Protein 1
Amino acid sequence: MSLPFVRALMQDRFLQLLLLIGFGLCFAVPFAPARWPAVIDWHTIITLSGLMLLTKGVELSGYFDVLGRRMVRRFRSERQLSMFMVLAAALLSTFLTNDVALFIIVPLTITLKKLCEIPVNRLIIFEALAVNAGSLLTPIGNPQNILIWGRSGISFFAFIGQMMPLALAMMASLLVLCWFCFPNNALRYHSGAKSPDWQPRLVWASLVLYLVFIAALELKLEIWGLALVAAGFLLLARRVVWSVDWTLLLVFMAMFIDVHLLIQLPFLHNILSTTSQLSSPGLWVTAIGLSQFISNVPATILLLNYLPPDTLLAWAVNVGGFGLLPGSLANLIALRMANDRRIWWRFHLYSLPVLLWAALLGYGLLQLIR
């Protein structure tokens, strides 16, 4: 185990918190560590591993510097640039999923800091909020939508029609908030920024490996796709493999295990067994609240055992992606990629008010369309 990896483990406070929570839960539920590997969503872990390698390959190639330099000159103000990045994040998340959109947008955003004066942390926070809002529109935008769509039996476009009022309302709300949070100041460029020195071969290799990896995912051969991607980078640019934040995978594994332990608590099952008897406001609050603490994907899996895959459930678990950090795994990915401790508490200064607004606005819209 390399020294940088050990140092990263020692400094990862969120991972340490998850381990502490898991340790405490072991005293409240049956202790069966042999079952823990089976509760980890290995498809997610493998997919994240491949995406992190591919994104790091493009990042280390220097192409984000080239793209950022070309793009930033097209905008005159901080507000224009910020709103473009937020819209791009939302649009990409509708068909690439929220996680993949972040792996493209966040590294590009970090590159912009080298070229001009821009509040990068604030922009990454808005991008995390934007992918949660954008991804809720389509059946393939995020995992919870895939689950609900599969159970609902409705068509692809019927699902989009069902989600569109909430998606449009949340995106409009985020753009208004973005307008006020990013001033209309002229962009100030860094005069000392060097002309980008990039490696076209590494960019093209990353693109080819990306296509190989996507094909492997489609064929359900994800482990072989990951092996090819890793082997490709070990041959072409070994530093890509060593530069990836591998501790993020441990964080996700710990979250899966913690959620597995949490849902075994008897009182939680007692509460969920009564959900079908709740009124619409009660169901709305329950789905959003559960998503806040165990993330909206596990919450969806749990609630589908007790509730129909209707509009209320689909809207509620997507709204639950806002608010606290665990609400959506996309939140965790965005903040980890920012690599700045200050962003963790600043995120909640924006996300918690957005959650309150989304909950009130979403429920009001739900009553109007019913």
Protein 2
Amino acid sequence: MKAEIVLPHQCMLGEGSVWDSKRGVICWIDILNGEIHEYSPESEKHKIIPVNQMIGAAVICRDGNFLAALKNGFGFVNRETGDVNMLANPESHIPGNRFNDGKCGPDGRFWAGTMSHTDEPEKGSFYVFGTDHSVTKKISNVSISNGMAWRADHKIFYYIDTPTFTVAAYDYDKNTAELDNKRVVINIPEEDGSPDGMTIDSDGMLWIAHWDGWQITRWDPDTEKKLMSIRLPAARITSCAFGGDDLEDLYITSARTGLTNDQLAEQPLAGSLFVIKNIGYKGLPGFEFGS
């Protein structure tokens, strides 16, 4: 399984890959440069939407626009004009925090968490942004809010707080957005690199991106067994998402921020968007924001 470069563009801190099945494009963000990216494998067109502030995640809305978790809170982003309409900021009183990673759930709500700019432990929280634009805190004392995924039956939610080196599972009620019965289902060896973004395949297996790990791994959350490791030509692997017409291509984001000149010389592709085509496994369709 060999990763290919999707296009000759490198992000400072690429993250948040999500496949837009209606348009046949892969979308991702550059957190530090405050950009939403989208790329069409068919037309090879690459579009960059600047949002003029740091961005932690962007998801697809049912009207085709984006909903983003930004430095200054939640906001809609017009896909054509790039105009940002800020809606709510649950951490306006914590200027040292920013959003980091988020996804739409099977309930049509937007789930996203925060972290300290300086990586101070347990300074962040995990929120759900409702279709009525309400914001509810779901998890407190989060250090670096990262990967999330829902099981195909929508009864289990998986979540990564990076410095814990674990994947936690919660019982999940998509009607009420309640999380309950937290337990650890995967312990990540530190030598694998820090667990970052995450997705799930149609077999219920979890795919995890590893920061400073040079790899993507596949795990069985029922047995805690690591099933596969795929090495990549960059150390700071940040997220993964299935895409393509049959959801059989795995798109992978990476980062170059914080690397020394020597490290960049060793990994000149750091910050690239990669793809492993026809990976042999199939993803689950993503969710859109809206009721």
